[in-house]
Predict the 3D structure of the following.
Amino acid sequence: MTVDQATTRALLLELEPVVETNLNRHIGLAKEWFPHEYVPWSDGTNFDGPLGGTAWTPDQSKLSDVARTSLIVNLLTEDNLPSYHHEIASMFGRDGAWGDWVHRWTAEEGRHGIAIRDYLLTTRAVDPIELERMRMTHMSTGFENDHDQTILHSIAYVSFQELATRVSHRNTGKFSGDPVCDAMLQRIATDENLHMVFYRNLLEASLQVSPNLAMRAISDVVRNFQMPGHGIENFSRKSVQIAMAGIYDLRIHHDEVLLPVLKKLKVLETPNLTDDGAKARDELGEFMAQLDSQATRFTDRREANRARAAARKG
């Protein structure tokens, strides 16, 4: 679906009061916090190199391989912030309430990568050389929005993506087994949740302003959703590890990311749909039913594999 520039400008103007209202709401709710307060600096020692410290070895990490993988994926995702800023600034613009939000969002997101990286390096949870090489590789490829058909596609995507990121951070913290890591990621997840609410409120307004176009955008995004870090090297293998550990899998994606937004906004009950809007709603309903079945099959297979592994150990 293509939407001409005149329609895009009209949507931006019509939604701007909603952006301003929710920006003010967000600023009133957001609490100032400082990344350095969540890093156990006293655990840190110099690495090898110009400062003549100790080289990193895997036994120095208190985290399991899966927890380390999940944290690295989360960090590399946050690292691509310059590309995300470019994408949303290009779509939403840099003027008025839209621009104010873009810059505020970027500033808040910047804290996440700072905190996670400082934690990982201070606790020697990761190989610092490998991490930096992965960062360079990932950022060198940049990020391109998979849902740039319309401004409404972008709004729909970030509504689900921010919640998915919140869930991923929160579950990674719980899985880590480290109270410090858990507290840090819980704080980051709080930011992500506020961002999600901002975009979700904007998506709700979009359904009222242009229900058919918004429904098409939501259906397209949900049916083709990918996490923003999908361009990370070996992402598929890493995501399988994360799913098998129960940190983020199809069941979580369906139950804790897609369904809450769809239910909150009563998307499948949207009135006044015609033609493509009605078709998009039907496609969305069918997809959600299929995803629910796929999620059940995945969790059943995972539990069966775990049972077999336990039996072999016994």
The chain has a mean pLDDT of 90. The first helix runs from residue 5 to 29.
